[in-house]
Amino acid sequence: MRGDAIRDLAIPATEKDQIVLVFDDNRLVGDLFGQFDQNLALLEQLLNVEALARGNQVTLRGSKEACGEARDVLETLYQRLAAGDELSPGDVDGVIRMVRAETAQPSLPILEDDNRGKGARVAMSQISTRRKTVIARTPTQDAYIRAMQRNELVFGLGPAGTGKTYLAVAYAAALLERGEASRLILSRPAVEAGERLGFLPGDMREKVDPYLRPLYDALYDMMPPERVERGLQSGMIEVAPLAFMRGRTLADAIVILDEAQNTTSMQMKMFLTRLGENSKMIVTGDSSQVDLPPGQVSGLVEATGLLENVEGISMIRFTDQDVVRHQLVARIVRAYDKAGAQIARGRKNA
Length: 350
Description:
By secondary structure, the chain is of the alpha/beta class. Helix content is 42%, strand content 15%. The protein has helices spanning 26-33, 38-47, 64-82, 89-104, 139-150, 164-178, 204-222, 225-234, 265-272, 299-306, 327-349, and strands spanning 6-8, 18-23, 50-54, 57-61, 126-128, 133-135, 153-157, 183-187, 237-239, 253-257, 280-285, 313-317. The strands form 3 sheets. The protein has a 6-stranded parallel beta sheet with strand order 9-8-10-11-7-12. Strands 1-2-4-3 form a 4-stranded antiparallel beta sheet. Helix 9 (265-272) packs across helix 10 (299-306). The termini are far apart. The model is unreliable at 10-15, 106-121 and 192-200 (pLDDT under 50).
């Protein structure tokens, strides 16, 4: 992404581990570097480089590879700012992850129709709604968005904090806005209530709202609140407890099943066979957080084994490396996974 807006200053050949970048639009430099240079500090922390800002230029020092990655990160972020995007620390972290992945795997595909960051080393998949544009922050998120675009049934598997549900709702909202789906159906097993919701006070929506709050939160992020409320009133957006899906055929719809690890084998089979014409399904879950009674097989675990190689189905597996919440969340997930692996080895050797 070499253009008039960004220039590498000439550096003596003896200092190959130093790069100086000059950004011509001073209005964007403050946002690029971040408040109190926090974006540069994150760059230093994650890429092991030294980033020294002075006016509208930044000097990068470190290994040749690290400096090259830092340059690509700053150039990609600068172009996003020039395109009118806003940056958060999470966006900076996401671009760093993508650049590092591209360095490790140069064949990372570039979207031909992606005009954001055009000419940069890394182009990330994105989902655009009228209210917000969501850009992939990890290679797995990038693959997940592409899978939703290309397949009728997608499984998003992995730990909390990886963006599985958020991206699914964002994609569903985008399809609704473009008229490519006439309905959005949100479903989640209410195992905490034993799937028996009749005793809970209120109408159906009031009964299941507590179990679907993460889906609502993402939906309100993507669409204006009044449009969401109108959709709920008209039936364009439907909240459907999993136990109430039996017997339906879901045509011309995008259907999201969240927390699918808490489905039984029969529930999962029932849900997957609801798929109708011109519809898409997205199933998300984390097989390490099953809340079913002991001895009961998770429908998600069974389905991923049975459907692994079925044409038209894509399974995207997230890991702790894809956690995009606080960095501490990734370390917590890693600790639990390590403990779980140790317990499994102990049982195997017993």
